[in-house]
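Sequence in, structure out. Go.
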Amino acid sequence: MNHRFIDVEGVKLHYVEAKPDKPAGTIIFLHGFPEYWASWQQQMNYFSQQYQVIAPDLPGYNLSDKPDDISFYQLAKLIPFMANFVQQVCEANSAEHPVFLVAHDWGGAIAWPLVAFYPQLFNKLIILNAAHPSTFTREMHYNPEQQKKSHYIHHLTAPDGPKRVRNNDFSLLRNMLFGGTCRPVFDAKQQADYLVVWQQAEAVEGMLSYYLMMPQQPPLLEPGDPQKRMKQGAKIPNIRVSVPTLILWGEQDEAFVRDVLSGIEEYVSDCQIIRFSDATHWLHHEQPQIVAKYIEEFMAVAE
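Output:
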């Protein structure tokens, strides 16, 4: 694994890459909150003998730059920014050198529209527990259970959000990640590495900026209030994906209701869904070998 830095529109991104002499293609991995490139370590190890594998720290995370201008983290700006990154780090996309995008959580929130608006850059998309923006907006608008599941976002976007995250040696993030899996999967070294990542200067502010700029802010629920509509005039985005897509979904997800997968075929024309009844939001950590096998099989299918 080689650590590299690249300048993308004046922002320095850190990424990790491994590459055999004659790669069969490129796999780009996008992590979510509150992770960093190494969340994909096991998948990268699995594929690096055959593929060029690339995993960046998203802007605001770990060793990548953390732009002060919070508007940078709007999806409308992040999407062309990440398209620029992909174009710079990949060899020319062709039938001989396909490009696959694998994404989880916030990485998936970027990946869905990235593939929708830049389909020419990618051959296939693999999503792990990241709701499609259209179905997520729908559920946030109409589903009281999704509103409850998303209510934690108010704690992250509050004025004291960064302080809350840092309190008690990052207990909020430790409980979310290390305590959120169906069984213990992070060893002591991995947990210590995550703490180093979270302690990077301005890293907490960078990570929380994604939530501050997200378009689907959940309604603020009061005690005893079962449901509220999102703000008047909220529209369901029409994000349509034409690239063949595989969705791997841990059904014990604490962040998303299962209904976010309902009707997704309306927006993703070529979509396969594989559900894991015994996995959570952190599927790629809990069942890394099975996840890798499904990704491998999906990439091997001729378009």
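Check: The CA atoms of residues 40 and 285 lie 8 Å apart. The longest helix spans residues 161-177.
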